[in-house]
Amino acid sequence: MNKSGLVSALQREAGISKAKAEAVINIFFDAMSDALAKGDRVEIRGLCSIYVRKYKGYVGRNPKTGAPVEILPKTLPFFKCGKELKERIDY
User: Fold this and answer.
1) Stretch 73-85: mean pLDDT, rounded?
2) Which residues make Cβ contacts (< 8 Å) with residue 12, sequence separation at least 6?
3) DSSP-derived secondary structure for 26-78
């Protein structure tokens, strides 16, 4: 399912217009993105939690040449599946 699928599902279930459903989905994703950008954790009980992990820099190797390459530190979102979702998928 993608964003347009979510919009269609919300439109159908809530009985609202497509424009309103799209606005709600956009507000939801924007709020999640803003929270993660600030370093906050997003938790949706039973579904998932998403938080930011910081990774240290290290020296890697170019697989083609074998030359050392410096990998810079980075911050990435990390998704952790909720218990109810895990049970629902792995029935």
Assistant:
1) 94
2) none
3) HHHHHHHHHHHHTT--EEETTTEEEEEEEE--EEEE-TTT--EEEEPPEEEEE
Helix (H) or strand (E) holding 81: strand 74-81
* Residue linked to tokens 């629902």: 88
Residue type, 63: P
Supply the pTM of this predicted model: 0.75
Structure letter (DSSP) for residue 85: H
Q: 39: closest CA among 78, 71, 72, 73?
A: 78
Residue type, 85: L
